[in-house]
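Ticket #4471: structure output looks truncated?

Reporter: J.K.
Steps to reproduce: submitted the chain below (138 residues) through the standard prediction queue, then opened the result file.
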Amino acid sequence: MTKLHSERPEQTVAAGRALAARLGPGCTVALRGDLGAGKTHFVRGLLGGWEAEAQATSPTFALLHEYPTPRGTVFHLDLYRAGSAEEVWSAAHDELEDSGGMVVIEWADRFPELVPPHAVHVFIAHAGDGCRTIEITE
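Returned output as attached by the reporter:
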């Protein structure tokens, strides 16, 4: 496990970018953390690490956003408002099953049965005074 400290959103983005550099097509990143912890900033870094032109936005009101990159499509799911694992599975079965890109799941702890065993787990927590801790388990 890698444990990082972030004092600014830019550092959280940089942590995501550094992780993305080590990940290849077919990977899954499972994100956990409270509201406002910085999960979407981390996703912005993952996209930047795969050279996406688009800027990640929180897909809270849409289950799935897709971002094309030179290394493959990044499928960004947000399970915060999802009602069930079945709902997520029927909406994003192809992406979860075999994306050929990167699958990023925010609020992955809501439906852990959707997270594959090979997933990289990222936990972001508030650490006071606007700081965050980022724990990455590969």
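Triage note (M.O.): checked the attachment and the full token line is present. The chain has a mean pLDDT of 91.
Status: closed, working as intended.
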